[in-house]
Every structure is written in structure tokens, then in C-alpha cells.
């Protein structure tokens, strides 16, 4: 791995003017950062920050050299992500995963792209019950960090749609097939505002207009869902939160001195990437075979988190944690009891402190973070049924 040195007393590639920092790092505070410009250098007064060039992508097992070559390309921007996704659609649908092999037939799907008020192309996908089935309501999805609505959620959506719901999903700006620098969140509030804007249009679609509308958020999407609700308390007939990122688990959260350093650096080099300290896939998937299938999610953002993105995620969780008593919508919270990515105890805190009169918490014994994708088949079936039964009782 190539190592570079960087100097704060220099011209930043993200700013045209010079700046001189009086900021110093506390001793023995390890920080590693990956920069998009490998030659850029930074050095502090007392110690040196280590940076490294990004490692090449791992080879995907069981696919041709041609597909591996396609998957290995840089997908910082939407056009490349869309090409890669098109090349892998058939491979993904043939995976030996419960969500794909047991997905109900007859579900009607559609996908399209619209520009949002910021001028970005936003990718939409919908799943509708087969013709003749009465639609009970709409379920709108917010995906998690790094993810897309076009991989594992494809199977989840089919199960919910087959039960009589119109299911709608978007890729957040900077993720999946929507425009924006891959993995980059400039503002978490803008992420929530985009969800409100896009799903306001969905609610007016003739097939679901006037029907109950629910929003389903997973992981970071749970935090987005809560922000959406806090901005628009009357906008939804219920919230479904799956392993919500109300607060990042203590052993995943940087210490406060490091948070201050990250905040400072995020204003200087916002798109730079932090070197990850933990294997999130190992923490997220309990079933080893399903963990292996995650590598086929070829347009997910699996690189180290970008500096500004990290700061925005930390800021959002703190804001949500301080406002949980304002959560008033009917609420279903689902969480793996052994989740090491987002803290199930915080889901309990949310359940106990939310002002909702209609609220349910389900903790799944031994469950990891991805309780809808990475658990044994019977657990995935149970969680899906719990969601559908909760929705049915409120339609």
C-alpha cells in the first residue's frame, strides 16, 4: 500500500486559497485517510497523519473475467454505476439467496429517473401487486449507507408488494443509480429533504392516492426516515425502522477528540476517505453464505467513508438522539439483538421515549445488523412477516 505525507500549510486541492492551521492533534491519536489525489501531502506540527492509496477491488467469484473487468472500473459517478448494474442484473437474479429464489412471481415492476429540485437525476423503482389484487397502501423505502434499492431490496419489495402494497424506492443522491459523487453526503438534512420531495410525488400517483402511506427505513435509512418524520410529523401513516441508525454503536464511534479533528478536516478535504478499522460485512451478516453474496452488490459504496459523510452521519445521529421524544407516528422498530453496527439498546431507548401511542419493538435474538438480508432463511421470513402483519393491521 502506497503511503503519502500531507501538509496543512499548503494549498488544498479543494480550495483555491492558502490557509494556515493553528489546529494541532492530540498525541497518540491515530488517523488514516485515503485521498483522491495521491500526491497531495499533509503534515502536522507534532506528528504525521498517515494516508494510503485505495486498494484495488477484489475479484468477484463465479463470474467471467469480462464481468470482473466491468466491476473493477471506477464508479464514482452515476453513468458508470448504471453500466455496471446493467451488466450484473442477470447474475444477481440467479443468486441462491432466499430473497431471490423465494420472491413471489407476478409482481409488476417499473423504474425511471427524474430530476430533483437541486438538478440531480434521482433513480426510482416500484413494485406493484399482480393485476386484480386490491392495493392496501403505499410503502416507501429509504436504503442504508452505501446501499441501493436495486439489489437485496428487490426481493424484500416483492414480498411486500405480493401482500397487496405498492412499494416505491429511490436511491439517495450519491448512491446507487442516482447522480452525485459516490458515497458523498454533503448534508444529511438535504438527504431528508430529497426524500420528502420525491415521495410527495409518489403519494399523488393514482394507484395509491388517498391510501395509507408508510415509510420504511433501514440502517442509515432509518435515520433518514426519522429526520423526514421530524420535519413533516403528519406526512406518514406509520414508520417502519429496521436496525435504525439512531446512534452509532459506542465501539464504532470515534472518541470526541477525533470527532473534532474529523470535523475540521471535513471542511478542508470533504471527499477524502477514512481508512476503515472494521470489516462491516463481517458485522452485518450472520449467515456466512449470505455474506459472500454481498460482493455481487457491485454498485454499493464499499470504499472507506468520506470525511464529510462521516461527520454528517455523526451529526445526524446526535440530533435524532436529542429529539426522540418528538417521534409521534405509529412506529415499528425491528433490530437484531446482537447488532454491532447500530445499537439495539438505542432502538429500545427510541421505543421507550417516543411519544407515539402506537409503537412496537421487536428484538431478534442473535440477529446481526442485516436482519432482512444476512440471517438464516427462517429469520428473514419471520422479519418480513412481522412487517407485513404490522402494515395489514393499520390498513
Describe this structure as you would to a colleague.
The chain is an alpha/beta fold and 395 residues long. It contains 12 helices and 12 strands. The protein has helices at 65-71, 78-93, 98-101, 152-162, 188-203, 220-231, 256-268, 280-284, 288-293, 307-321, 344-353, 377-392; strands at 3-4, 32-34, 50-52, 108-115, 121-128, 137-142, 165-170, 213-218, 238-242, 273-274, 331-336, 359-364. The strands form 2 sheets. The chain has an 8-stranded mixed sheet, with helices on both faces. Strand 6, helix 4 and strand 7 (165-170) form a beta-alpha-beta unit. Helix 6 packs across helix 10. The radius of gyration is 21 Å and the shape is globular. The N and C termini lie far apart (55 Å). Residues 1-53 have low confidence and may be disordered.
**What's the CATH topology label of one domain?**
Rossmann fold
CATH architecture of one domain: 3-Layer(aba) Sandwich
Q: Biggest sheet: strands, sense, closure?
A: 8 strands, mixed
CATH superfamily of one domain: Alpha/Beta hydrolase fold, catalytic domain
Strand content: 15-25%
How do the strands line up in the largest sheet? 4-5-7-6-8-9-11-12
- Write down the CATH class of one domain: Alpha Beta
Shape: globular
Protein name: Alpha/beta hydrolase-1
Keywords: Hydrolase
GO molecular function, one term: hydrolase activity
InterPro entries: AB_hydrolase_1, AB_hydrolase_fold, Hydrolase_4, MAG_DAG_Lipase
Amino acid at each position: 500500500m502506497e503511503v503519502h505525507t500531507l501538509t496543512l500549510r499548503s494549498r488544498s486541492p479543494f480550495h483555491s486559497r492558502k490557509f494556515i492551521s493553528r489546529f494541532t492533534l492530540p498525541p497518540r491519536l491515530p488517523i488514516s485517510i485515503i485521498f483522491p489525489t495521491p500526491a497531495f501531502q499533509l503534515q502536522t506540527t507534532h506528528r504525521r497523519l498517515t494516508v494510503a492509496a485505495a486498494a484495488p477491488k477484489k475479484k468477484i467469484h463465479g463470474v467471467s473475467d469480462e464481468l470482473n473487468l466491468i466491476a473493477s472500473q471506477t464508479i464514482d459517478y452515476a453513468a458508470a454505476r448504471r453500466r455496471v448494474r446493467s451488466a450484473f442484473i442477470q447474475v444477481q437474479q440467479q443468486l441462491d439467496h432466499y430473497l431471490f429464489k423465494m420472491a413471489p412471481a407476478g409482481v409488476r415492476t417499473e423504474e425511471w429517473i427524474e430530476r430533483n429540485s437541486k438538478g440531480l437525476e434521482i433513480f426510482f423503482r416500484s413494485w406493484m401487486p399482480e393485476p386484480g389484487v386490491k392495493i392496501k397502501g403505499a410503502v416507501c423505502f429509504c436504503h442504508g449507507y452505501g446501499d441501493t434499492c436495486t439489489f437485496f431490496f428487490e426481493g424484500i419489495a416483492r414480498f411486500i408488494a405480493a401482500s397487496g402494497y405498492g412499494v416505491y424506492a429511490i436511491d439517495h443522491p450519491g448512491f446507487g443509480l442516482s447522480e452525485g459523487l459516490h458515497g458523498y453526503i454533503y448534508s444529511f438534512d438535504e438527504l431528508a429533504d430529497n426524500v420528502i420531495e420525491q415521495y410527495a410525488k409518489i403519494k399523488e400517483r393514482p394507484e395509491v392516492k388517498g391510501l395509507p402511506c408508510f415509510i420504511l427505513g433501514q440502517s442509515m435509512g432509518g435515520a433518514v426516515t426519522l429526520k423526514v418524520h421530524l420535519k413533516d410529523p403528519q406526512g406518514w401513516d406509520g414508520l417502519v425502522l429496521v436496525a435504525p441508525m439512531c446512534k452509532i454503536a459506542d465501539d464504532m464511534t470515534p472518541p470526541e477528540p477525533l470527532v473534532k479533528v474529523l470535523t475540521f478536516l471535513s471542511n478542508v478535504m470533504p471527499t477524502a476517505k477514512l481508512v476503515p478499522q472494521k470489516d462491516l460485512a463481517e458485522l452485518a451478516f450472520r449467515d456466512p453464505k449470505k455474506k459472500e453474496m454481498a460482493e455481487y452488490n457491485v454498485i454499493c459504496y464499499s470504499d472507506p467513508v468520506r470525511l464529510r459523510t462521516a461527520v454528517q452521519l455523526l451529526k445526524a445521529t446526535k440530533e435524532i438522539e436529542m429529539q426522540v421524544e418528538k417521534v409521534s407516528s405509529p412506529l415499528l422498530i425491528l433490530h437484531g439483538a446482537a447488532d454491532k453496527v447500530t445499537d439495539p439498546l438505542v432502538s429500545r431507548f427510541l421505543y421507550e421515549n417516543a411519544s407515539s401511542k402506537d409503537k412496537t419493538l421487536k428484538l431478534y435474538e442473535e440477529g446481526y445488523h442485516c436482519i432482512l438480508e444476512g440471517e438464516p432463511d427462517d429469520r428473514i421470513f419471520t422479519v418480513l412477516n412481522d412487517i407485513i402483519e404490522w402494515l395489514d393491521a393499520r390498513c
